[in-house]
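Anyone have tokens for DUF4131 domain-containing protein? Sequence:
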Amino acid sequence: MIQTSSVIICLGYILGLLFTAIPWGGVWILVLGLVGAVLFRRRYAAPPQVAQKPENAGGKTKIVSNTWQAMPHSRIWVAAGLVGLLATLYFQFRVPQPGVKDISQFVTLGNSSNQEQLVIVRGEVASNPRLTRSQRGQFWLEVTQLDEVKNEKGPANVPKGVTGRLYVTVPLLQVTELYPNQQIAVTGILYKPKAASNPGAFDFQKFLKQERTFAGLIGRQVNILDVDAKRKWGWWQVRERIVRSQVRWLGVPEGPLVSAMVLGSKAVDLPYDIRDLFVQAGLAHALAASGFQTSLILGVILQLTKRFKKRTQFTCGLLALIIFLSLTGFQAAVLRAVIMGFAALVGLVLKRKVKQLGSLLLAATLLLLFNPLWIWDLGFQLSFLATLGLIVTVPAIVERLGFLPPAIASLIAVPLAATIWTLPVQLFVFGVVPSYSLLLNIVSTPLISIISIGGIISAIAALIWIDAGSFVAGILHYPTDWLIKLVEFFSNLPGNSVAVGSIATWQILTIYALIILVWLVRWWQQRWWFASLIAASLVLLPIWHSANTLFRITILAADEEPILVVQDRGKVTLINSGDQGTGRFTILPFLQQQGVNQINWAIANNFQNNDSNAWLELLQRLPIKNFYLYSSQPESSIAVQVIQKELQKHQGIYQALAIGQVVNTGSIVTQLINEQLPILQLQIFGQNWLLIGNIKSKEVQQLVKNGSLPSPEVLWCYSQSLKDLVLALKPKVAIASSANIDEKTLSELSQSQTQLFFTGRDGAIQWTPKGQFETFIQAAENKSSVL
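Reply: yep, here.
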């Protein structure tokens, strides 16, 4: 009875945190608690009675009340509702907010003019430096003082005492001698992080907020203030010793990979190409220190101390868990595994069998009491769901695979159960299904086990003697190399990942309701195939409907180049690609979220007048059926030859186009009418769209006078030429690349009949034939206010 009541209270707290996603979520939890109290009140008004026969045969049968109840007392439901209500209030209380002296409060002062204001920020290094994708060094800085560098407009301001953390990036050579707890001064430019401007894009502002950080610093120079100070001891030194020992004989990337499989990728600077390879193949969990490593460590410790007393085993196991937790950096997934490991040790001492489901619920509740914001942390969610799947679903799968040897059945059941419980969240966040993930997990499990066990032994040996750790790590060269090649093989298979598009909230809730029904209700357990069919239909039917009905144009927020994605009943046209960063962080995430697996027509034009573009990166991730290039660049150039070679892999067609040549994709007709400026004309459902490059006022007047610029319904242009073009062409809608326009110009433009949008301010802009233009940032704000 006590256990059942505790479970209800814990679930009330967790649901209260989840209901922070909807308005008045705590009130709804309280209402659910009151409804539960009313529904189960009658159970306690007339408790069932059972007949109890005495031990002696001649005794009379005694009627007693059954003290065990299937459902707790009504007051427990009310208490759970109140706990859920308090959870929502606690969550809001714990949401990070910048303080009065937080350094983010001074960002606008440093960047109040168009000129960049250099500042000097003093503080203490709070993390080991890491390498970013742009090949810069990155670290966290606990700040204490802010100085402005003297500029031409006047003397610098008085130094200010500040607080808070900064996300700092500096040239790579500037971080080679940095380590945690070091006092430094960084010269650079402060900025405030931006929220996601495009669907599917990474929300940098949200990421920093979760780390209790509200500003960043683009550093140029780092000065070490305590050069002669003695290094303070920290767990980072132990971690660094282990990594250095394993990399010494294994090299890169094998060494960092082994270290990441032992300590977790968050504690190790793993190369991005290896990290991306494992994530895309569906093996991201192998790089996250959690339950697998915890189980191995406890298993080894208990085996080594099996001849000692239970208390000694408990002490050694607890010490090992604390050391492992400290080395991995107190990650949520590791904390969950350590709490469950601690519960197992307590059960060992008390000689009681610990219920894994109960310990998982207890671990989740304790962690969310410590940090309620983890309820929306993807790593915490996936770790909790995967462990839940292993506890409640693996036995059922193993039973159904009874015709196989137990070892093989378990090898299949473990990744399958974890996939069942985590796939809906992955679809909700990423919208991609790794096609061979299940098979790869089954095949790679022996290698992952060998590398993890060997890595732990190597780490322990490195703490005693660094050469011994290197020797043990060297033995793992072949298993690690085989694992990398195995992942590469599966990643290069056709259709290695399928984009199905991000599913909606109602879809993920319905799918998890079906999973829970199969878990708890016998009728659904016998008809699990029916539940699977319903779940698959919930994902596939909306995709089919969208592919047959949706027509939408999306103008992505991508700096100084117009990038248009046209979705026409399952066919996709992409106009321009931007630079490599735009392709990787803007276009690909958007197409992935929309469930796009190939580009039917790609139209390239060099709006930025440089050789940097993302077409090659896009081709390596998505097949392009028809590629059209408006360019005076000869076909013999290296860039064009590389594109042609990638196109041939997927039987794509390449065609170079001259000025004035038309491309007809069915729903849109495109034509480059001027290459030097450049100017691209589109005909869409009878509307005239113009995409105009960087153009001067005199050129605008000349083109209008010559009749070279037809009056468009929709105009895209650079911010610098927005005023001249709007006044000359009088479009119904004008879209500029940024909102960096003075107030006087905006006032003049507001008097015109033209509707203005700025991708730098409004984010991506979408249009459908039946609707108006919709901005992504406003739509995201409206969605969050509704949810």
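The two ends are 36 Å apart (CA to CA).
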